[in-house]
Amino acid sequence: MLVRPKAGILDPQGTAVERALPALGFADAGNVHVGRMIELDVGDEAQLHSLCQKLLANTLIEDYEIEILEPS
Amino acid sequence: MRFGVVQFPGSCDEVDAIAACERVGEAQLLWHGDHDLGGVDAVVVPGGFSFGDYLRVGSIARFSPVMQEVAAFARDGGPVLGICNGFQVLCEAGLLPGALLPNASLRFVCRQVGIVVVDDETAFTRACARDEELSVPVKHTTGRYYCPDPVRVVFRYTRGANPNGSQEDIAGVANEAGNVVGLMPHPEHAVDLLHGSEDGMKLFESAAEGALAR
Question: Which residues partner with B144 through β-bridges?
């Protein structure tokens, strides 16, 4: 799952990273947002949305995306 | 008048909360695994770092058995006060609207602040006067209140004193009925002149007044 701050909500962590970029020579990089990635094994993929909504993300302030990877 | 003070693994302000409650009544500790509230008249969810706050502040504590009881108690009109992490837990549990985000400064803030009582009709502000200013400390990293919907504001930081970038200087809110109140500042750390202020007592006195009235 990718969990990130909702658009329009102040993201000071993203802003702090963005401010550091020009000094490092990345002048044309911007619009930085910092979220988190959660990896887990689950038997029933149908549970994933419920898992995100109940615990892994707070949908008032965060958006989430689910990516399903086949076992390697 | 008997208060129940909830303790989760990682709570750290329950001792001060009990001491504050005992100035106006009796108080007992409620453990997070408890399945009943022992007949208390009011509940305080104190500050700390419930379950380490490893995912999001307050997000795991809401699943504790005692929180099911607190939710039922609140639905029946019982007075519930959430302080700091307790406020975060009540928001995550859906007992209060909104959410708490990392401070705009990304820094831990620890200082005395002024807050204004905007609503003197809640279960924890009925002993206050409207527009009264209280001096209480804040100590948090995740106190930036945000709510996309209209909300019953109870406390605002005084002009220029907002320590975390919260929306409209909000320091504390209530549910629609006014029996559930949450705030980031710590009234339980301002109950004796040795603390530099005893303004925090107003919240506990309000709960005691309410218990007498019922």
Answer: B101
